[in-house]
Specification:
With 268 residues, this protein is an alpha/beta fold. It contains eleven helices and seven strands. It has one domain: Rossmann fold, CATH 3.40.50.1820. Strands 2-1-3-4-5-6-7 form a seven-stranded mixed sheet, with helices on both faces. Helix 5 links the parallel strand 1 and strand 2. The longest helix has 18 residues.
Length: 268
């Protein structure tokens, strides 16, 4: 996406409303539902044991994705955290360490690695997939601002908060890699998002142009609860259980169509 298109998109994006932000409290019910229906999730098709790495959201670490990793292990996958501590923003050295971690897992398992990224972690996941398509099996993002514009265009309180939480980040080389996470991945990809997201405008979380091996998948729920959301867990397992080289779009027939929805392109 060129700068003109990015600016057109950003001009039509609004910050989440107070009502949507307040709805993030839904995470409490999402966590309770996950605990209540965990046995049902265990009846899903089993994975083939290939490695899956999950990158966390901004200002969280592997603890924030522990429940999702536990579910994936129970579902037959070798699930790992990103092992880079707290995600404090876009950092070149953090990315390089993350990339090394994934390469090590691919070599250890003798298999390609699937990468899942939650929120800002999805930016890392997409970057990794586009830089290393030879070792990445597929990439899944969860409410990730994959079409966030260049940080040089960000001003005001948001910029100040980012700088306060992440000193020196505005000069980090990774900020120049925007095309790497905005470009359509060279491997199968699924962008999962919620239109009720109270943290990130969902328009930033979906791909404008889709190919034969990419999709945008809508789920109900909050942003904070995406790693505890039953629908998200079901969708991730459904995507990951596909055999390598046999990826197909998510099936929305029957009851699935009532829970999920597919967005064909970026709403601008």
């Amino acid at each position: 996406m060129d700068n003109k298109n990015i600016n057109d998109v950003v001009a039509k994006i609004t910050a989440p409303t107070f009502f949507n932000t307040a709805k993030e409290l839904r995470v409490i019910f999402e966590m309770l539902a996950m605990a209540s229906f965990r046995s049902r999730l265990d009846t899903l098709k089993r994975g083939d044991g290939h490695p899956v790495v999950i990158a966390p959201s901004f200002m969280t670490g592997d603890g924030g994705t522990a429940a999702l990793r536990t579910f994936l292990r129970r579902s037959g996958f070798a699930a790992y955290g990103w092992e880079q501590g707290r995600n404090t923003g876009l950092r070149e050295q953090v990315y390089l360490n993350f990339e090394s971690h994934v390469k090590d897992l691919a070599a250890r398992h003798f298999k390609k690695v699937s990468v899942v990224g939650w929120s800002l972690g999805g930016v890392y996941a997409r970057t990794l997939a586009n830089k290393n398509p030879d070792i990445v099996r597929q990439v899944i993002t969860l409410g990730s601002p994959i079409h966030i514009p260049d940080m040089s265009g960000v001003t005001g309180p948001v910029l100040k908060l980012y700088e306060m939480l992440n000193p020196g980040a505005m000069t980090d080389p990774m900020l120049e890699w925007g095309d790497c996470w905005r470009d359509m991945p060279k491997v199968p990809s699924t962008a999962i998002y919620s239109e009720g997201d109270g943290i990130v405008d969902w328009n930033l979380c979906v791909d404008k142009m889709l190919g034969a091996h990419s999709e945008n998948l809508r789920v109900p729920g909050s942003h904070v609860g995406l790693t505890h959301n039953l629908a998200v867990m079901y969708a991730i397992a459904d995507r990951l259980v596909q055999r390598e080289g046999q990826w197909r779009p998510f099936d929305l027939s029957g009851i699935r169509g009532r829970v999920f929805g597919r967005t064909p392109s970026l709403a601008v």
